[in-house]
Amino acid sequence: MNSVLPSTRRKSTADIRASLRELGLQLSLLNHRVSARLELRDADLECLDVLSRRGPLGPGALARSVGLHPATMTGVLDRLERAGWVVRERDPSDRRGVVVRAVRERGAELVAMYSGMNASMTKLCAGYEEAELAVIADFLARTTAAGRTATDELAADQGDSPSPPTRPIGNTADHLGNAVGGLTNGSTALPMRLSGVELGERGERADPTG
């Protein structure tokens, strides 16, 4: 590592940053196409992603996870429930509360939309040794964590709540899917946004002054 010239290392680092930003953009465009095909909004898709990875959540926790204002979240959930994507149920740990659960039966529709990307990822990963995949997974997980930290710092400046922690994941394939922001259905990871790398976001966002 010490033999690498500083200028070469700077260029490699810049290339990685540029590639991550391009990846974020491409995943954002892919998700936008999926949203349009399924007659969803981008914010709807993000909510389904969080619910599929973290399980049932209260509306408030879900709103914080995707950066939506609580009032906006109510409209999103109404829309998703009418379309049969989610259901609102009594919280088993607090009968006075409500949790939102993704409807598993509709997951196949999302899996089908991402089948091309999933096939490409499977082929791509097959070209790397397990040790190489572990390095890639570690880098992506650290990148995701850095994005979450930066997001939480901005949230703290604005008086908002920090992002909820990501559910722990077990193996290399899971790490790769989660670090890219995978929407999962069983063992199938669906590519979502790469947090903290994109130049911009689509969809409804929380009012920082709200």
Report the β-strand fraction as a percent range: 5-15%
The tally of helices reads: 8
Q: How many beta-strand elements? A: 4
Identify the CATH homologous superfamily: Winged helix-like DNA-binding domain superfamily/Winged helix DNA-binding domain
Task: Kindly report the average pLDDT value.
Answer: 78
- Termini Cα gap: 48 Å
Overview features:
210 residues; Arc Repressor Mutant, subunit A; disordered C terminus; mainly alpha
Give a written overview of the molecule:
The protein has 210 residues and is mainly α. The protein contains 8 helices and 4 strands. It has one domain: Winged helix-like DNA-binding domain superfamily/Winged helix DNA-binding domain (Arc Repressor Mutant, subunit A), CATH 1.10.10. Strands 1-2 form a two-stranded antiparallel ribbon. Strands 3-4 form a two-stranded antiparallel ribbon. A hairpin with a 2-residue loop joins β3 (183-185) and β4. It starts with 5 loop residues before the first helix and ends in a 20-residue tail after the last strand. The relative contact order is 0.16.
Write a compact overview of the structure shown.
The protein is built from eight helices and four strands, in the order ααααββααααββ.
What is the secondary structure topology, with strand pairs?
Elements: H1 6-37, H2 42-54, H3 59-66, H4 70-82, E1 86-91, E2 94-102, H5 107-113, H6 115-126, H7 130-157, H8 172-179, E3 183-185, E4 188-190
Antiparallel strand pairs: 1-2, 3-4
Helix pairs in contact: 2-3, 3-4, 7-8
